[in-house]
Each structure stands twice: as structure tokens, then as C-alpha cells.
Write a structure and sequence with these properties.
By secondary structure, the protein is mainly α. It has one domain: Four Helix Bundle (Hemerythrin (Met), subunit A). It has seven helices and no strands. Helix 2 (40-63) packs antiparallel against helix 3. The longest helix has 27 residues, at 154-180.
Amino acid sequence: MIEDGTVGPRRFLTVPNAVTVVRLCLLPVFLWLLFGAHHQVAAAWLLAFLGVTDFVDGYVARHFNQVSEFGKILDPVADRILVVTAVVATTVVGAVPLWFAGLTLVREILVSAAVVGLAAVGSARIDVLWIGKAGAFALMISYPFFLGGWGGAWWQRWFSVFAWIFGVIGLSLSWAALVSYIAPAREALTRGRAGRRERSNS
């Protein structure tokens, strides 16, 4: 802990990181509700809760000075795991069109591959853009609606409407974010290489 009350950048045990870990631990519960207990609506509510809490850890980190380097790595990784799990599970039960799920997964694969590739060539870390977070948030709202709207009840039709509204917005923002990361990625690669040269010359 730093003297002004903020958390040092290398701290692991912070409230935001704990929230992220809890989100990851609840994913098996979601899968059990959906495939084990066959409680589709309960699984949808839990998935929506996990999506909403994605912004809780970020809010706590920023407003209570608990930003850490570990958290900056853990949170995007948790986002990828959560999105992929939601997409695959919702697709398996037939609640979302294959093309929509495919576009979501392809985007996640491209982002993950870019992150790994940049790290392999020594790029500096890239901060998450708001457009990417907004896209992920909208998608994590749409998939619970897709799941909750899968059925023949009259009220489930409204779930489907909201699923498409949030889904189209989320997918559009997510792909726009992918393009928006090109310039920061180039800058981060330049900074990473410059940092390596400075360390090698010191």
C-alpha cells in the first residue's frame, strides 16, 4: 500500500481482483444451472449478473485507487473467458443463431491472437478502450436475453427483442473496437521496442 492510500501497481490482493476471481468461479455454476439443473432462466439471470459485474471491478479500481498491473491483465482475460463461455453455451442450447455466435467468437479469437502476438514481439501493454468495454458489456447483456428468450412463452418474445437490440449494438462496437486498437497497438509496439533498447544499453 502506498502512503496516499492507493494500491501499488504490483499488488494482487485488491477488491477489483477479488470481484474478477468471483466472476470466474461462478462460471461453473452457470454451466451447471444450464446443462445440469436445466434451469434456463436462472442461468440467464446469473449470466446477466456476471456481465454487469464486469463494470463493478473497473469502477472500484478507478474510484478507490485500486488499479494494479495484475488487474489490468486479469480483467481482460476474465472478459474473454466469460464471453467465450457464454457464446458457446448459448449456442449449444440453440438460443442464438450460429452466424451471430460465429462473429462474436471470431472477434474474440482475433483479439486474443493479437494480444499474444504483440506480447511475443515485445510490445508494451495496451490499455482497454472504452468502445471495447462497451461492446463487451452490450454483448454480455444480449446473450442472457437470447438465453432467456429461448422458448415459447409470450414474455420470452420481449427477451428476444432486447437480445437483438443489445446484440447488434455490442457486435458493432466490438468490431469497431478491433479496428480502433490498430493505432494503439503500433504505438505500444514502438514503446516496447524502445524500452528494450534502453534496458540493453543501460
